[in-house]
Amino acid sequence: MENNEIKSGGLHKLKIGDVIFYIFLYLFMLIFCIVTIYPVLNTLAISFNDGVDAMRGGVHLWPRIFTTQNYSAVLALRNIGRGALISVLRTVLGTLFAVVANALLAFIVSQKNFVFRSQLSLFWVITMYVNGGMIPIMLLYRNLHLTNSFWVYVIPGMVSGFNMLVMRTYMEGLPDSLQEAAQIDGAGYMKIFVSVVSPLCKPIYATIALFVAVGQWNSWFDTMLYNRMADQYTTLQYELMKMLSAVTSLKGNAGAATTGTQVNITPVSVRAAATIITMAPIVMLYPFLQRYFVAGLTIGGVKE
Question: Quick one: 52 and 102 in the same domain?
């Protein structure tokens, strides 16, 4: 009874300014959610709508003429299966290698007794602003026999100055007593990295992994530059880009294109279907990593 009175009394103590603030806060969040979700739902509706009908406009949250022809046309591409496999492999391996490589470098640079920590940090910052250019990089990759190879997707992206510095900053925020306690117990640096630092760095590992995975999955320009002549190393994004370019260049039948399977498609419908296909894996991956974003900094660790 007393608790109910306290709660009810607390509600009456809210000031008019607080009530107005909460109203504007909830309205802002509602508008923000609508602005964020509406483009996705609109793209989904267009992807399931007839291509010619979609060019009339007016398709918002529900397809006007429902069809799966847009997805059938995209999935009927000659190299779509191989491209999807290569995209999955480059995403998995590229993300794994990038997280491991950047984590090891970040751990080394985060050590306060490491002699060249300041110089290396400055070096990585410089690489974020300066590079050799497209032609020198292409010549370098060719001399390293990375062109016309799957590993051109993985090896060049293993180390990133930005990702390494973000990890280093996170590791520097961990209590020094954790490593000191492990060293007293006789643990070496590799043991400390694997058993002490890495478990506490799951949130930043998950964040960097998501960034790298999205970049690897959505990348198509490197395929065009380095593996354009090697169909066995094509990617899903590159095949979808080629299809979209081909459909865009065909302007007959009021902007619609007819494929060999007698499916009328348009750039608008193909773009929507391709967007949903490429977005779906990342959307499904995010829930598995989201829980690490809110994890505590030193869960299970020693408190200062």
Answer: no
| Same domain as 245, residue 99 | yes
> What type of residue is 74?
V
Range list of β-strands (E), the chain: 257-258, 264-265
Distances (CA, A) of 275 to 16, 46, 133, 234, 281: 46, 11, 30, 18, 11
**Residue that finishes a domain, picked among 33, 52, 68:** 68
pLDDT at 46 over 80: yes
Structural domain for 25, as ranges: 2-68
> Rounded distance, CA 232 to CA 216, Å?
17
Judge contact between 274 and 244, C-beta under 8 A.
yes
Q: What is the pLDDT of residue 18?
A: 84
Q: Are residues 149 and 87 in the same domain?
A: yes
CA distance 65 to 275: 19
The CATH code of the domain that includes 131 is 1.10.3720.10
Name the pLDDT band for 26 (thresholds 50, 70, 90): very high
Q: Are residues 94 and 49 in the same domain?
A: no
Q: What is the Cα gyration radius of the chain?
A: 26
Record the tokens describing residue 69, joined without a space. 């022809």
- The string of pLDDT tens digits covering residues 113-165 is 888 888 888 888 888 888 888 889 999 999 999 999 999 999 998 999 899 99
DSSP, collapsed to helix, strand or coil, labels residue 264 as: strand
Mean pLDDT of 267-292: 81
What total number of domains does the chain contain? 2
